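Section 3.1: Structural characterization of target chains.
Under the original work plan, the team committed to producing a structural model for every single-chain target entering the pipeline before any wet-lab resources were allocated. The record below documents one such target. The sequence was received from the expression subgroup and is listed exactly as submitted; it comprises 482 residues.
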Amino acid sequence: MNGSEAPGQGPGYARIALLASGAMFLAILDSTIANLAVSDMHETFRGASISDFSWVITLYAIFFAALLAPAGRLADAVGRRALYTMGVGVFTVASLLCAVAPYLPFLLAARAIQGAGAAAMIPASLAVILFDTPPARRMAAIGLWSAAGSAAAAIGPSLGGVLIDASGWRSVFLINVPFGIALMVGVRAVRRSERVPGRFPDAVGSLALALGMGGLVLGVTQGSDWGWGTSRTLGCLAAGAVVLAYGVLRARTQPVPAIDTTLWRSRTFSLANVVSFFYGAALYAWLLCGVLYLVNVWHYSELKAGFVLSPGAVFSAIAAVGIGRVLGRRAGPRLMVIGGSLLIVGVGVWLVAVLPVEPHLVDLWIPTAAISGFGMGAVSTGVSTAAALSVPPAQFAGATGLNMAARQMGGALGIAVLASVLAGANISGTTAYAHVLLFCTVMAAVSGLAGLGLVLKPAPQPSAPATTAATTGTAAVTGGEA
């Protein structure tokens, strides 16, 4: 992408917001929508074990996290519209392949491809918002984009439960197809980005980053099953760390690196990555813990548990949209992240102290879901805003890819901790779930502390059209960093 490109021209705001938020929603939705499908899949693939089915979740997470950073850099070479179309197209085709999978290995391969498509959708969708939305509405647009991700993560299990109960596990993948086609048709209205010849990122470095990130995610997600001290787990973690370090070091010497390491010179962007990592650890463990607690302790069906989880998704979306529209100009990302983290911490302490064996839906679950959901929406909007607006326009997609990769890595850690805590524990009692919630509370607190450094300078008012120079466009979009 070209930093001198004039933002705010082309299709209307509503269409741009819908295109970007739709891609974000689909990509994050498939991180959680298949969580309740394992038992139904077992009826189709009877020869497979529960451990085999866990790869349906794990492979998507690995390829999604591993390719986020390289995908962000790829936008500089092919343009945001082309990357968006490519990502949504791969995701849609892979979703169809998942839905018609005749045997488990076929399904696993399709899930890996689906994760790769999702990795391209995230940076491309935010780049579309930041380049094609008028500066005055940019904060609100980021709020909508963040709301879509928060709502998708929270609503995934409930929507999956409804679809599985009504039409079987294949429906959780088939539902992506019509929406994916609609997004590919709609994005044709977005202006093409200026392609920069010879700007394809370093292939060796991109491969090293993908393999390194994939090795780390694999080791973390499978550690509880393989054993944390086994050679497989330690080998994946060690090899992943070494290869990832090589990819980062190589990026410092390449003319067109796989990731732009200069982004970390920005204190705000670096802290946004830290916030994303710890927030991701809290978010994904919290959401899955809630599903398992309702099913195993309160003995709700998967369908009922899904509906009970819905208020959190609703309030998360309300918070993200409301903060982006109402407080975007007054409350900077620091206040959003700190305030949201405090809400999550408060609810976490409350639940750890009183988590009951008997159902208390109205007087406990709904209030805590509403408050924590609001906090999650605030944190998501704040950190996305800080990461995007602390860098120049030409680095939007790469910055988004790195920041989301940090969140997915944190999410993998959170799920691994949850699996380790619940392994061998009495899952019909409350103690293990209280321990998981305590972990989430600590992670949210660390996220809030890191948010203290998320400071952006007020955006100056340009005195000439943004098309006149790259530096003018940069000022209008980012305003710089404190």
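Residues 384 and 405 are 12 Å apart (CA to CA).
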